[in-house]
Amino acid sequence: MLTTLINYVKSRWYVHKAKNAYESEQYDEAIACSNSAIKLDSKYATAYLIRSTSKARVHGLVEALDDARTFTRLRPHDKYSLIITIQTD
Questions:
Q1: In 3D, which of 6, 32, 3 has the Cα closest to residue 15?
Q2: What is the mean pLDDT of residues 13-30?
């Protein structure tokens, strides 16, 4: 139980750090922080969204599609999921 709580808090911290890195255009750091958050909590959809957008900036849209699809699977009713689904079909 305590380990789960610690992983939850750490994953949110890594996503916060990834958001800041993305906003300051440090996309490789944003990808690394998102990877760390996903390792701690594989169901944290925001980490996939940040990693997807960062990968799109660095590597292109093809690299970002898997993360975008994972995000839509985890949050099917989110407004970003609708946009991703429309644009990838």
A1: 32
A2: 93
